[in-house]
Design brief:
mainly alpha; 4 helices; Helix Hairpins; single chain; 91 residues
Length: 91
């Protein structure tokens, strides 16, 4: 369940540091958060889709590692991003 190009470009434009910034922590965390929310909605309808559930857990772990790194390197930007995305700061 990949993101469509328009939605991805919108997220990159909103959270990127420069115009075509796809590698910064902010953009990666925002893209992962969008994919996680889409997969969560999918799994509410299809509760027995265990392959997607495994993919969801993988994405959550990847986002958690990125968030831990981002919090360690840039605390104030991390707190702003967490508040903007509406995710918990439990790292």
């Amino acid at each position: 369940m990949a993101l469509d190009t328009a939605k991805k470009q919108e997220i990159i434009a909103k959270y990127g540091r420069k115009e075509n910034d796809t590698g910064s922590c902010e953009v990666q965390i925002a893209l992962l958060t969008s994919r996680i929310s889409d997969l969560t909605e999918h799994l509410k309808s299809f509760t027995k889709d265990h392959a997607s559930r495994l993919g969801l857990l993988t994405l959550v772990g990847q986002r958690r590692r990125l968030m831990r790194y981002f919090k360690r390197t840039n605390k104030e930007a991390y707190l702003k991003l967490v508040q903007d995305l509406g995710i918990r700061d439990n790292i």
